[in-house]
Amino acid sequence: MESEILSQGLNDMHLGLHRAAEATLQYRTGGDYTHIADIEPGSGSINIMAIVTSIGQVKRSINNDWCRSLTIVDPSTFDISNNIRSNGVLLNCFSERYPEWLPSPNVNDVIILRGTKFSTFNGQLRGVGYKDKLQWAIYDRHLQNIHHGDRGMALATQALGNGLGKSFSPFHQTVGTAEAEQCVRLLTCWEECLGTTAAQLGAMHDGAHQQITGGTVLATSGRTHNLISEASPDIEPKGFMDCTVEVVSNGSKSQMNPGVHCVFVTDYSPNPVIGDYFSTPELSDRVMLVELSDRAIGLLHAMARGSFWFLRNLRVKVGDSGLWEGRLREQSGSRQLSASDTTQEPYLQALLG
């Protein structure tokens, strides 16, 4: 029965992918904006219009500037045959004086970024918005307008360098309707792809999970089984999910904090916001750090490298580095799986396949 559900889910998803591909082809950049896939690292100042898939916390940089990281995608980068968020690009934004000068979009909003610079790091495209160059605006998908967030008491324009430098504003002011119309086209494309890929994949997962658990977990908590590529602090309810993974390594979180126990796990699906802990192409952006605390610490000894696990009630959170991490607090419900018997474990079967 589980295989029939997965097969039907795959058929439905393939139909959705076809529709999503058609939507992608209908989107084109205009004006002086560049597709992410067309960016040449080191080519100078670049203007982009993209979808926000994650937002880091506002914090101080090593130079004491305010900073925040965003992950962005556009139709030129996401892979509709895998996960449309899987090829996101990390962009670090900086502000000298006001945290309110940093972009403050919501996930799935369109963001306009002007004056960005791009380079490669460990083979990955990375962007930066410097404190005296980056200008931005947000298209809110709910309000359907372009805005600059809550500026609070921060000035709209101010001289940099403690008032001795040039006058600067980080807030891009749109002229006419062309940029807003382009935001709408991009958002329409994105929502079409979300509806035909993520929703179909989620339905496939829910169906298989329903057969395994009889619906008790879904009925009481709304939590679903997810791939690492779908992991996000924004998953409902409140960032909690179930997952099936292989243990890559275990140990302390860092040499600086040996008292924190963690494991590194993968299901080989990519997620650009979970980090790159292992310098091998097959594991790049595919390994999530999972911190074990409270009663879950008792699982650490059994979670040997190469073992397979079903993890119940894993919470996805933003770590100190700005990357997404998992946290497991309870032993209850999590269990080791046998690779020799997958008849009742369709997710493990898919992982091994």
TrEMBL record:
Pfam families: POT1. It is found in: Chromosome, Telomere. InterPro entries: NA-bd_OB-fold (IPR012340), POT1 (IPR028389), Telomer_end-bd_POT1/Cdc13 (IPR011564). The keyword DNA-binding applies. GO terms for biological process: regulation of telomere maintenance via telomerase; telomere capping. The keyword DNA-binding applies. Keywords: Chromosome, DNA-binding, Telomere. One of its GO terms (molecular function) is G-rich strand telomeric DNA binding. GO terms for cellular component: nuclear telomere cap complex. Residues 34-144 form the Telomeric single stranded DNA binding POT1/Cdc13 domain. This is Telomeric single stranded DNA binding POT1/Cdc13 domain-containing protein.
